[in-house]
Amino acid sequence: MKNLVVAQSGGPTVAINATLAGIVERAITSGMIDKIYGAKHGIKGLLDDQVVEIGSRLTHPDELYRLTHTPSSALGSCRFKLGTPEEKPEQYEAIFRCLRKYDIGYVIYIGGNDSMDTVEKLSEYAKIHAPDIAVMGAPKTIDNDLCGMDHSPGFLSAAKYVATTFAELSCDCNVYDVPSVTIVEVMGRNAGWLTATSVLAREKPGDAPHLIYLPEVPFEREKFVADVKEKMQTHRAVIVAISEGIHNPDGSYVSAGFGVTQTDAFGHQALTGANRVLEHIVRTEIGCKCRAIELSLMQRCAAHLASETDLAESRILGEIALDRAIHGESGLIAVLNRVSEDPYRIAFGTVPASEVANRERKVPRDWINEAGNDVTEPMLHYLRPLMGEREVARPGHLSLI
Known about the structure:
Layout: E1 2-8, H1 16-30, E2 33-39, H2 43-47, E3 51-53, H3 61-68, H4 89-101, E4 104-111, H5 113-129, E5 134-139, H6 155-173, E6 180-186, H7 193-196, E7 211-213, H8 221-232, E8 237-243, H9 274-285, E9 289-294, H10 298-301, H11 308-326, E10 332-341, E11 344-352, H12 377-386
Parallel strand pairs: 1-2, 1-4, 4-5, 5-10, 6-8, 6-9, 7-8
Antiparallel strand pairs: 2-3, 10-11
Helix pairs in contact: 1-3, 1-11
């Protein structure tokens, strides 16, 4: 029998360990896997021979349950871009030397669109140099920007946190009798899916968030000021949802006004501070009380608001990825797609890694209103079956004044 190695890469989520649990469970029940290994900190674990045996620690259902409900990446993570075999042959030699050392026949890599670039490169290399080794991908990202699937594992839990937080903020921001604006920054570099889920906090028209800005539409300073002023005519406390990646008409990120210039291994600019830029605009051009809030890491580690649907789907995707590898497939990504909305049902399958790697699925323009400051009914139609009343933990809205 062959051995298995699993690695996790990119930004952690509440559900990424559920996928790992699904992989381990399928490995145990298949009868086709001898030892189960984990690579520390993603692909760097295979490059540096930092591999640990994890199967013996996860043999009991209670242990797999605990793993499923543990947020973040239990194996550690990384943001490391592999070169091509032509550019960096030594990287591939080191990785496959490590795989041979541990008699690995199956590699499952859990990650987002950048991580699937690793899956594609390793699987293509293996076809020529190690055809007995299968390399498969299992998806994850709170950004919900992966192509080839209806929604991304990790997204539902992050969405539940975002929607619940906006509902709670609405209660807090409305206690004072002075006009105020609250700018809430949500993760999302080039795709605004997660920010859009703030709309689920609304129970009736006019509820917060009152304005929603996504990176799919260029951000215009003058229009933003006019939008806020208009909302302040009917709302004492205006709450605004923005994606971290909102950008100016010239393509520069709004957060660049906060002096951010760092980039990661994939060339992505580190984003933070767009809310501070907008806070400054409100204070100087409107002159009212303003508060800037960044949800930051809480969006991807809030296990107390984990979506049970998310955990269940993520675990099955892990099972699918390994099952397909055991049956001789390689270079594919496990995916899920919606087949029914009422009742909500999905079907699982696979797509080539090339259809996911380095690609981003953005919010369709017609899912954003013409003014570029809110979402439209198609977005709600998409989100409601995924979340609905059962997921958004709204506080009470009883007011005595």
